[in-house]
Design brief:
mainly alpha
Length: 111
């Protein structure tokens, strides 16, 4: 993902940094950090929307929105991967329990 840095506004610069940190936290699976970054970004976007410069910053806000949407897609992919891992774990767990029960039954039958 490309990073567009708005040099004209400190809040936009901070949002860009937070978006990068948010992406890194997603990849690392640190979802509480992702949530914290998301809150910070939302507060900064609201601050910009309420500022006198909001009209001048519409293009930059649109770019932030596009980047944010790309991160949402990344989060969905991460979620799907996690769901697949959990499914494999559950299948393995079920197989292990079945094996243990069969093994125990065989041992009891042979003794």
């Amino acid at each position: 993902m490309s990073v567009y840095v708005a040099k004209s506004n400190p809040a936009l610069m901070q949002i860009q940094q937070l978006l990068l940190q948010m992406q890194q936290a997603m990849v690392a699976g640190k979802w509480l950090q992702v949530q914290d970054y998301d809150r910070q970004i939302s507060a900064l976007v609201l601050q910009i929307k309420q500022s006198k410069d909001r009209q001048e910053l519409q293009l930059e806000l649109q770019l932030v929105k596009q980047r944010y949407q790309a991160l949402l897609q990344l989060a969905k992919r991460q979620q799907q991967m996690l769901e697949q891992k959990m499914q494999r774990f559950q299948e393995t767990k079920t197989a292990v329990v079945a094996y243990q029960l069969t093994s125990e039954a065989t041992l009891e039958h042979n003794s």
